Amino acid sequence: MSYRKTVHWAALAGLALIFGQAGIEKVVASPGMVEGMASIGFGWTWTLLIGIAEVLGVVGLALGVLHPAIKNVAVLWLLPFGVGAFTVHMSYHHGFRDYWQSMAVCLLSAVVLWADERFKVVLNGGRTAGEAST
């Protein structure tokens, strides 16, 4: 297995573990998670909906083992939750103990997509394939 594939699978596993734990804690109403979400202004309904969305994303990551396109969609689905969590932790001046996982999922998402040979981002400035650049 190549270095890039090893990095890809390790990052994917980390992403699934972090989001899986956070999503399940929200769905089962773990007291610490519910209190933490309430302290930043999220009531029970939003906590539950975010948890369900995170768990669905992790299911997409798992299905993506067999269908890589689903995995990439799941990573892109989960990325805004990681960015949002990181932004909230920073705006509330939380310590590293509180924000490291949200920072990690942002980085892991980028690593998973970078290391996937099938995923490409094409920036062509609005030109079609046949147009020459100036």
Please supply descriptive tags for the structure shown above.
134 residues; mainly alpha; 5 helices
Written account of the structure:
The chain crosses the membrane at residues 46-66, 73-93. Keywords: Membrane, Transmembrane, Transmembrane helix. InterPro entries: DoxX. It is found in: Membrane. This is DoxX family protein. This protein has 134 residues and is mostly helical. The protein has one domain. The protein contains five helices and no strands. The chain has helices spanning 3-27, 31-39, 44-63, 68-91, 96-115. Helix 1 (3-27) runs antiparallel to helix 3 and helix 4 packs antiparallel against helix 5 (96-115). The model has no long low-confidence stretch (mean pLDDT 92).
Residue-averaged pLDDT: 92
The number of helical segments is 5
Question: Radius of gyration from the CA trace?
Answer: 17 Å
Shape estimate: globular
Transmembrane segments: 46-66, 73-93
Protein name: DoxX family protein
Main location: membrane
Membrane topology: Multi-pass membrane protein
In a nutshell, what does this entry contain?
The chain crosses the membrane at residues 46-66, 73-93. The protein is built from five helices and no strands. With 134 residues, it is mainly α.
